[in-house]
Design goal:
33% of the residues lie in helices and 25% in strands. It is α/β, with parallel strands linked by helices. Strand 2 (78-84) and strand 3 (90-92) form a beta hairpin.
């Protein structure tokens, strides 16, 4: 049995990992069956779909999460970082087995530092206190980014005065920030970020690409499988070049390949594919679109570091981008993207983006989805495409969630 032991689950203190008692192999079978059943709801499902499903990629069952989102609870004299559980009890999760031992040690240290520094956690019931969340990110070099989400700037001076205590004990903290979220809402972070450290981002090297992990920039929470995910996407994208050569007489040698990366985050997919194409003597022209300016800065930083040319990242909503008439006219013919990458949030890419893709001259789509239900509904709105490959990446073991990578190609006329 390949199961994870967790004393929080066994004592009914935390139920976040609802599948933790299931063997990993059983979890994967259930996820594969779930995906197949969803694909059957699409109008162009046929019996070949199960054969298109590649072997599920899985990784470690513990110590795999690179990000902790901890609610600050309790009082300044007895703070806890964790959750208010299903029984209404405060539970410290600093020793959650999903985190590495170094992450656990740091979380415990921060929890103790909050008490020593006298920082009052925010109380939802009284709408008083300051510290709402502690967000910690770890790269594979065991470096950390710590973000303190506060209600206001009232205790900024106190935090800055007491930060040396934390930094001396944990020199691997490379990025420290304060984020202000003043609203009494279930929103984790606000727009104002104050950098307290010399560095303002971490670097996570995946497939030899130094991706920037910035405050507020989306980054996959499982670096081990994210590396495999990006590599697979690059291989699949390259496999479509031969078909492009047949369909639109593309010269495979040193050819210009227009790539759009919608919902690009910090650029993981688009940059990985572009770098792979560059090694194969192709000339990728990448346009990345992401609503978060912070993520766009991270993507630009990475592209500059590895000297990628013909790269353009823009901070705007993908729906607005594809509905811009001036923009659409500009890309109607020869400049239309050959490959479209989409990695949307759980809600999917929405109807207007699907309609744009459907009416465009895009030949291939790399679709990475964290919600298979919206993937299936989006596929229904793009009937001109067919699935060529589909694969599950088990980024979220012990839960019903999974990442799905899908290669779509436009059907031959």
């Amino acid at each position: 049995m390949n199961t994870l032991e967790c004393h929080h689950y066994q004592s009914d203190r935390c139920r976040s990992c609802q599948w933790i008692e299931k063997d990993l192999a059983h979890q994967i079978i259930e996820k594969e069956n779930h995906l197949i059943q969803l694909l059957k709801t699409t109008p162009f499902y046929d019996n070949d779909y199960p054969s298109l499903l590649q072997e599920t990629q899985s990784g470690p069952i513990s110590e795999f999460r690179n990000k902790a989102k901890m609610v600050a609870l309790g009082g300044a004299h007895n703070p806890s970082l964790g959750i208010e559980n299903h029984h209404g009890k405060i539970v410290s999760l600093v020793d959650c087995p999903l985190y590495t031992p170094d992450m656990q040690e740091l979380l415990l240290g921060i929890q103790e530092w909050i008490q020593v520094a006298g920082i009052p956690p925010y109380r939802k019931d009284k709408q008083k206190g300051e510290l709402k969340y502690v967000l910690v990110t770890q790269n594979r070099q065991n470096e950390f980014m710590v973000r303190l989400v506060l209600r206001s700037l009232d205790i900024q001076k106190r935090i800055e005065e007491r930060l040396p205590l934390l930094e001396e004990k944990f020199p691997k903290i490379k990025v420290l920030t304060i984020n202000i979220q003043s609203e009494h809402k279930a929103i984790i972070e606000g727009h104002q970020e104050i950098i307290l450290s010399d560095k303002n981002y971490l670097v996570e090297s995946l497939n030899d690409i130094p991706l920037a992990m910035t405050p507020g920039g989306f980054f996959q929470t499982n670096s081990h499988l994210a590396e495999t995910l990006y590599k697979t996407a690059s291989l699949w994208a390259y496999s479509t070049v031969e078909q492009m050569n047949n369909q639109c007489h593309l010269d495979k040698n040193n050819a210009e390949i227009n790539i759009w990366d919608l919902f690009c985050g910090v650029g993981g997919f688009g940059i990985s594919i572009s770098q792979y194409f560059k090694k194969k003597l192709l000339n990728p022209i990448l346009t990345g679109i992401e609503i978060s300016p912070e993520a766009i800065r991270a993507a630009t930083t990475t592209a500059n570091k590895i000297h990628l040319k013909n790269i353009s990242f823009q901070a705007m909503d993908s729906q607005d981008y594809t509905s811009n008439k001036t923009f659409v006219k500009k890309y109607e013919k020869s400049n239309s993207p050959h490959i479209m990458i989409v990695n949307p949030p759980r809600r999917g890419i929405n109807q207007s983006v699907c309609e744009f893709i459907e009416s465009s001259q895009v030949l291939s789509i790399i679709y990475s989805s964290c919600e298979a239900k919206t993937l299936a509904s989006d596929l229904c709105m793009m009937p001109s495409f067919e699935i060529k490959k589909i694969q599950i990446f088990d980024l979220f073991p012990h839960t019903a969630h999974y990442e799905t990578l899908c290669l779509l190609q436009r059907k031959s006329s």
